[in-house]
Amino acid sequence: CERLANHVKVNLQENRFPIVISGDHSSALGTISGVKAAFPTKRVGVVWIDAHADIHSPYSSPSGNIHGMPLAAALSNDNLDFEVNDVSRDTADLWERMKNISIPGTKIIADDLVYFGVRDTEEPEDAQIKKLGIKNYMVDEIRFRGLETCVNEAIERLSGCDVIYVSFDVDSMDCDLVSYGTGTPVPKGFDQYEVIKIINQFTATKKVVCVEFVEVNPLLDFKGNKMAETAFEILEAITKKIEEFNLDK
Question: Which residues are catalytic?
């Protein structure tokens, strides 16, 4: 994460647009930290397109998996109200280091985080999301109210942000429709065309400075390499818009 944060920071400082392609979603902490390090005085908005909330801490996580903790680290929030683990001193020290990667302290605030498609959570995460007032645009809500309407509402929620980072986890897509080629597949998600529309609508604000794609796992894909192919289809579609809107800046 430290190396990734530095690469993201340097690319942004050199007026480039970093597109991060990663495996484990824990990388997002490095990416967010790099964005904040590049813009230390600016508010960073986060659009989190994912089946999972990834807002656990070592104190609340039933699995202890780091890929479920990047947002808690970016928020510098331990969720001690739902502490279930007796965390060792070494783990606590490493957690503090994670929260201070690249630039010390909180990287984002809860008001500047918006979820899209989160539908597989645990009780400590649900409580934290409610406590912090984080909006989750669920798949059914988006299809009922209209995608454009929901994204416009989210853009308004992030209107106080100077820059925006978009994180796309492929498990936000419907595993039955697209592919099971990801570590934690979840049904009843988006299709690739909805994901493209969501990202492109945010890109049109000209505030998006970095996009990340995560959690493709070809070893779990029984449709050949369908998940990776779909992810690259999305990447190709959004890259065209990124180039278009950045040329217009």
Answer: 25, 50, 52, 54, 67, 169, 171, 215
